[in-house]
Amino acid sequence: MSELVNRAIRFATEAHERIDHLRKYSNLSYTVHLEQVAKITASITDDEEMISAAWLHDVVEDTPATLEDIEREFGSSVAILVRELTDISKPSDGNRAERKSIDKGHLAQASGRAQTIKLADLIDNCKDITKHDPRFARVYVNEMEALLRVLVNADEGLMSRARRTMEKSVLQLGKVQVDTDNFDTVSVQEIVFESHFKRQYNDIFSAKDIAEPLLSFDAKTQAEKIRGTFKDQYQQVATVLVDGKVTGFTTLSLLDESDTFDIPKRVFSSDQVLSGDAGLAEVIHVLTRHDYCFVRLLGQVHGVISRDDINKPYVRMWLFGIITLTELRITELIKAHFDDDEWQNLIPEARLKLAENLQRERKNLNQHCELIDCLQLADKGLLLIKDAELLTRTGFSSKNAAKKVLKQFQSLRNNLAHAQDISTYDWAQIARLSIRMLE
Q1: 63 within some domain
Q2: Which of 51, 207, 216, 367 could form a disulfide with 278 if both were Cys (CB 3.0 to 4.6 A apart)?
Q3: Which of 20, 35, 47, 61 does the annotation list as catalytic?
Q4: pTM for the structure as a whole
Q5: Do 8 and 147 belong to one domain?
Q6: CATH number, position 162
């Protein structure tokens, strides 16, 4: 196995394990899926860049790593493959069908190498979903069939294998009786807001509220001068002008890596430029894929947002509001699930006394509240985990999965409350909450 592939394995494994990423149905390490995709790819090619990209194909979508991180670590060829394999649609682009149509168009334009890796991904996912989730598998098989029609440049042998896998799944699904009586579950990861409220809340703050103004340099400016300006003004990125018009951007890291006097320039990706009125959830969605989100005002790119800007007060207030309202929704769910005060039997006596003391204090202030309203978030999470029916209804596959999400949720809330760095330590949870806001 080549050094490049070994580095890709280490990078992908560490990136997914850092956020405790597990396979949805089996709760096995997510690297099980990555390894299968890489093995399928390696079964028809010894191209080390393709095999490396197979290991890395979900890193940008699912972990804090960006496309720029991939390029820095593995070079432009591998980064291009990962870019081609990374969805470009945003949750705000419409419903699932509309988003999948956008991503299908993106894959249709991908290289044959990337399309071949995508076949490997489809094969492994199709098997897993058919085995564990027959209801969703019916949707997935239809989406897979639509994708196979556009992956015209992929390896023909692997295409045949993908079609056989899909056809086998169709036969299996035809024999499975799907229970439709238990599909009213809601995931605690998804019970943030009703759709109309989400739209209103997303409009409170926008990209232009947190964007920083960009430096601009003429394309003929010497790279050394730009590097000096960056360091003097503590900046990392600037637009590049040709005849007074913005044509791309450069960064301090690009300048440091360049050994020429010319400015190393990048063009803007279509999925990393937003209007100034775009909501913060869309900004965070861009930053899950790229180092920088660029903001367009009056038809030109004038502002930039990095992950560090997520620590700004506007974003912290926005996130804290999401968390507060999510906790209120969890409380409502518990109230609706338990009869009277039945939930009290699941809470340790000491924790229950803390809630009772808080309730008395509020009543002394003439504030009406129920005992459940005085429970700490950790205690409400305990109710979700201890009650098997409620755990199932909230969409968690296991107690460990629920504990992991609740732990991340609490970490973000605590770091927000104590003005700690959230972009470094809570990015996965921030991204997860933001995606829910766009759905």
Answers
A1: yes
A2: 207
A3: 61
A4: 0.80
A5: yes
A6: 1.10.3210.10
Q: Is residue 268 located within the same domain as residue 219?
A: yes
Catalytic residue (choose from 47, 48, 62, 190): 62
- State the DSSP H helix or E strand holding residue 67, giving kind and residue range, or none if neither: helix 67-74
H or E segment and range at residue 414: helix 399-417
Predicted local confidence at residue 174, as pLDDT: 79
Q: What is the pLDDT of residue 108?
A: 96
- What's the pLDDT tens digit per position in 144-176? 999 999 999 999 999 999 999 999 999 988 765
- Which pairing describes strands 292-297 and 300-306: parallel, antiparallel, or unpaired? antiparallel
Assigned domain for 181 exists: no
Domain total for the chain? 3
Is residue 82 domain-shared with residue 106, that is, in the same domain? Answer: yes
pLDDT in tens, 293-342: 999 988 889 999 999 999 999 999 999 988 888 888 888 888 888 887 88
Structural domain for 386, as ranges: 313-438
Same domain, 149 and 28: yes
pLDDT score of 128 more than 90:
yes
pLDDT confidence of 178, banded at 50, 70, 90?
very low
Q: Is 340 a catalytic residue?
A: no
Biggest CA–CA distance in the chain, Å, is 75
**62 an active-site residue?**
yes
Examine the domain organization and report whether 283 and 343 are in the same domain: no
What pLDDT is stored for residue 183 in this prediction? Answer: 40
DSSP letters spanning 400-413: HHHHHHHHHHHHHH
Mean pLDDT of the chain: 88
In this structure, the answer to whether residues 99 and 229 fall within a common structural domain is: no
Q: CA-CA distances (angstroms) from residue 230 to 193, 236, 311, 316, 318? A: 42, 6, 22, 27, 31
Output the six-digit token pair for 144: 């897979």
